[in-house]
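User: Reviewer 2 asked us to show a designed sequence for the structure in our supplementary figure. I'm pasting the structure tokens here. Could you produce the per-position amino acids so we can include them in the response letter?
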């Protein structure tokens, strides 16, 4: 039986195991034939969408790894807009509205709100938080 999953990642890409564990879990569930429709980044997890993060050459680049996984499997990467703006992650539209000169939202990620998360959780068979 194939299930549809939604994940919520609340940990940053570095300094916590949650993002790495979520990515590995995603890879395994997709390999087993399940579907991952959404990954929602919340709280400190919004840092996973910061394209300016530059890990050391011997570390996994989790920001780009999420992007590549989403592109390959057509997974929605949603970022809580309120949590992101509080932590300095913004796109061009929001940067313009708050009068900042640059943006740093990684390609493939999009801003959403908690209402969107609630709808996604209702549509999936399993909701897992990392």
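Assistant: Here is a per-position design you can include in the supplement:
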């Amino acid at each position: 039986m194939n299930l549809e999953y939604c994940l919520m990642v609340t940990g940053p890409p570095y300094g916590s195991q949650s993002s790495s564990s979520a990515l590995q879990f995603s890879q395994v569930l997709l390999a087993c034939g399940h579907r991952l429709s959404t990954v929602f980044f919340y709280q400190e997890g919004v840092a996973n969408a910061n394209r300016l993060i530059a890990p050391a050459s011997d570390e996994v680049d989790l920001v780009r790894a999420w992007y590549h996984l989403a592109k390959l499997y057509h997974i929605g990467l949603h970022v809580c807009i309120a949590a992101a703006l509080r932590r300095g992650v913004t796109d061009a539209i929001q940067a313009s509205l708050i009068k900042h000169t640059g943006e740093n939202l990684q390609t493939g990620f999009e801003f959403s709100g908690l209402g969107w998360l609630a709808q996604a959780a209702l549509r999936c068979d399993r909701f897992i938080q990392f």
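For the response letter, you might also mention the following. The chain has a mean pLDDT of 95. The longest helix spans residues 18-31.
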